[in-house]
């Protein structure tokens, strides 16, 4: 099959999943085309992989460029090479794909839209954007979400059937280290307010001599640095954005994810695949990934006392940590391996093309 993948070119989970999906499809012999503003961080262009960069010209009428229209034009340009376009984010990516589809008419490839969170939970509820989000989902041939939680929200928003295709992890790459982990806590995100970065720091502060690794970057960076300075924390390392985070996760004893909401929790899954128990908020799609009391601990959003207590237990109790580490790895390998989930994607694309013919 000839498959186009449209995603954001940043370190967020939607771009990671789109990239890993495309690379696995290419390894299976499919002709895969990435259509993006730039190369996603984890993309390696090789056999069966083509990158189409969407340039956004600046014009007096569009002093900041107009990516949505430029993306629609690029999709029109490459449509003859594609059987399916799989868009990862409803707005603006799927709205651009719908516009391209209207221009192409019968020549348009089948359209799959995967919602990932903000497009439904935030933008989808904003009157300025909600009509366009609903329209994009209504005009897609298949709409999917990575968790049952998000699928239900998307169905409620747009009144369309939304199938759940779980996110996945390469369990061969994200694997435990034979070396014992130290007293290291880790958090990985895009440092947005919804990630509750001060909660991450406060949990770490209450864990005494434990080191905190902060992977990622984003708009809350200044507040993170201010908190570190205010509390004179000398055990926090701002690692920044990294293409490969396996070595950091392998050195980690506890992964922290105290978010306001998560549509899935890919960062937690990657940690679990490395045998790292997770302390997180009991919210959104996280309980579909992290089993409370088995692969980690889940607590009410903002309950820093409880989260810090759970983190300390995992730091200080070797038997508890070993049991949860083993369970975390087993859950990743039993339920979230890349192979079976990409099998489902192949079958879904094939069904759409059968309908087209």
Automatic annotation (TrEMBL):
Q: Name one GO biological process term.
A: bacillithiol biosynthetic process
Q: Transmembrane segments in this chain: where?
A: none
Gene Ontology MF terms:
glycosyltransferase activity
The residue ranges of the Glycosyltransferase subfamily 4-like N-terminal domain are 11-171
Going by the entry's taxonomy, the superkingdom of the source organism is recorded as: Bacteria
The Glycosyl transferase family domain covers which part of the protein? Answer: 183-331
An example Pfam family from this entry, by short name, is Glycos_transf_1
Q: Which PANTHER family match?
A: SULFOQUINOVOSYL TRANSFERASE SQD2
Please report the name of this protein according to its UniProt entry.
N-acetyl-alpha-D-glucosaminyl L-malate synthase BshA
Gene giving rise to this polypeptide? bshA
């Amino acid at each position: 099959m000839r498959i186009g993948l449209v995603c954001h070119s940043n370190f967020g989970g939607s771009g990671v999943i789109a990239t890993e999906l495309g690379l696995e499809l290419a390894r299976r012999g499919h002709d895969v085309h990435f259509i993006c503003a730039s190369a996603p961080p984890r993309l390696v262009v090789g056999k069966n992989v083509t990158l189409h960069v969407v340039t956004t010209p600046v014009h007096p009428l569009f002093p900041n460029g107009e990516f949505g229209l430029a993306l629609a034009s690029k999709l029109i340009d490459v449509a003859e090479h594609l059987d399916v376009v799989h868009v990862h984010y409803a707005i603006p990516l799927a709205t651009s794909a719908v516009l391209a589809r209207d221009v192409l008419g019968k020549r348009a490839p089948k359209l799959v839209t995967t919602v990932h969170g903000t497009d439904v939970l935030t933008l989808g509820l904003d009157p300025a954007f909600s009509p366009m989000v609903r329209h994009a989902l209504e005009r897609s041939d298949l709409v999917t979400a990575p968790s049952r939680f998000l699928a239900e929200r998307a169905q409620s928003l747009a009144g369309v059937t939304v199938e759940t295709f779980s996110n996945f992890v390469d369990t061969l790459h994200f694997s435990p280290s034979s070396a014992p982990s130290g007293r290291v806590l880790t958090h990985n995100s895009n440092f947005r307010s919804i990630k509750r970065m001060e909660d991450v720091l406060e949990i770490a502060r209450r864990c005494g001599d434990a080191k905190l690794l902060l992977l990622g970057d984003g708009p809350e960076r200044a507040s993170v640095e201010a908190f570190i300075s205010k509390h004179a924390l000398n055990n926090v390392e701002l690692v920044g954005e990294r293409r490969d985070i396996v070595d950091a996760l392998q050195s980690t004893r506890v992964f922290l994810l105290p978010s306001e909401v998560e549509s899935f929790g890919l960062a937690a899954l990657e940690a679990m695949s490395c045998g790292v128990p997770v302390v997180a908020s009991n919210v959104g799609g996280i309980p579909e990934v992290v089993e409370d009391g088995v692969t980690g601990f889940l607590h009410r959003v903002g309950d820093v006392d409880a989260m810090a207590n759970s983190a300390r237990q995992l730091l200080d109790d070797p038997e508890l940590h070993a049991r949860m580490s083993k369970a975390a790895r087993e859950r990743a390998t039993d339920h979230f391996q890349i192979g079976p989930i990409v099998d489902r994607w192949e079958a879904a694309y094939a069904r759409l093309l059968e309908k087209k013919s």
